[in-house]
Amino acid sequence: MENIISIKDVTYTYPDSEAPAIKNLSLDIHSNEWLSIVGKNGSGKSTLTKLIDGLIECDSGTIEIAGQIINEENIWEAREKIGIIFQNPDHQFVGATVEDDVAFGLENQGVPRDKMVKEVNEALKMVDMQEYKTRDPQSLSGGQKQRVAIAGVLATKPQIIIMDESTSMLDPNGRKTVLDLIKRLRHEQNMTIISITHDIEETQLSERIVVLNDGQVVKDDEPKSIYDLGPELTNFGLEEPFSSQVASSLRDTIKLPEGYLNEEELIDNVWKSFSKM
Amino acid sequence: MEIIFKNVTHSYEANNPLAALGLDDVSVDIKNKKFTAIIGKTGSGKSTLVRHINALLKPTSGTITVGNREITPDTNNKNLKPLRKNVGMVFQFPESQLFEDTVEKDIMFGPMNFGVSEEDAKLAAHDMIKLVGLDEKYLSKSPFDLSGGQMRRVAIAGVLATHPETIILDEPTAGLDPVGRKEIMDLFKNLQSEGKTVILITHNMDDVANYADEVIVMHDGRKVAEGTPMEVFNNQKLLRDDMLTLPQSAIFAQKLSKKYFKFDQLPITISDLSTEIKRQINGD
Looking at domain A1-81+160-169+192-223, does it have CATH number 3.40.50.300? Predict the structure, then answer.
């Protein structure tokens, strides 16, 4: 599989800090993959994001994005390939209207006006927000704001989207809308999704989970194997999946297969044990 | 303190009769020393509602009674200090309100602002930092050197340091990891058992099921339901009208009831769910 991001032996220590926030970390992220990065508050998730986006520079090691090792000269070019959606949509708005806001990133890249209008419209269409074009972003709901923020990111046509806890402030409906949108965009636009999250249910959408602890990768596996860690997951800032918690509470009465069961598998097994009674 | 809303309407644009209302004729009773959750979609009026309790917002019409204090459209901004001392408010991302150069000074700011001596404020800071689960050694650190979860605790300690009788929490755990979230939620539950009234705005229905005594459901600026978590999550009308999302255990029970199982009342916690599944399987 082709790597869109390749991190090799990266270390980073914040100024005025003694311990490194990221320690000799290596990680390959494949093209078009949906990767979850999890870990406790303070495990290095946000630092890693900043390193990938070139907001801070590694003390040692290299980061390669789409085949190019990033350095001071090419960082702007590399950054155009990456779009970040942050946690709090309120902190991301600069424009007086939705369309101004979506245009902001393109203006920064010096895109000519007629092309910009077209691309803003396309981006708003992708997130199904074209009818809100002339509205003040502050008048929108949380989920709508986050969709506008995503349109702003999409307009710049990134290959990689980093979601930095971008659904944690949303109500359940807003969260669902955003996640459905990301799912669709990944397939239609062939994007790579990196999702930083504490939400175990959200990690079920991804193909791979990387667990960070103290600035290092401590686990790197498919979701099912990570969920098999059971109660140990809380050491890494995750909850046990809901279906695992229910399964544990039933095992003294109902015979269930070993290991992680998703919700459907659990329901099937509970039905089976009922029909046998 | 009992908090009573009587026919409270709030318009963000009082001069525009067509503007949408922040609150639309809300009457509700928030019970003394209970843990009350306020739920509803983004924009449903939850934050607008609680901002009336310490008069950060004033009603366009109607009254709010907080203990022996009455807030009306004519309430002026003088003499609000006793009210605000009694009603502590923790906003979303409270860490953005930290500004002093040490954690100690930050926690001391609230009490001193309400006229407590420096000495007593210092004592309060030492008590509160332990209460929120941080070591006293953090008092001398800069709040900006702390992790997000630690900063949040310091901000909560600052609110608690004025010893409010009522604590209002506006999504206090957003962005915390699950372990941090549980610690903070347990802290609030403890404060309630020590006699405080706790009001929590949240989108997390499992927290509502696990911690709240009472629930208020808001929709388009109106109060559409109130009751215990069990009553509210079994309110068929709210579910039909899409004004409510359910805790995970209730959703699981709904799926399970497609075959063999039947739930007269949807269970809302994992332990209720598991007890009920076992009861039905054992056929008693």
Answer: yes
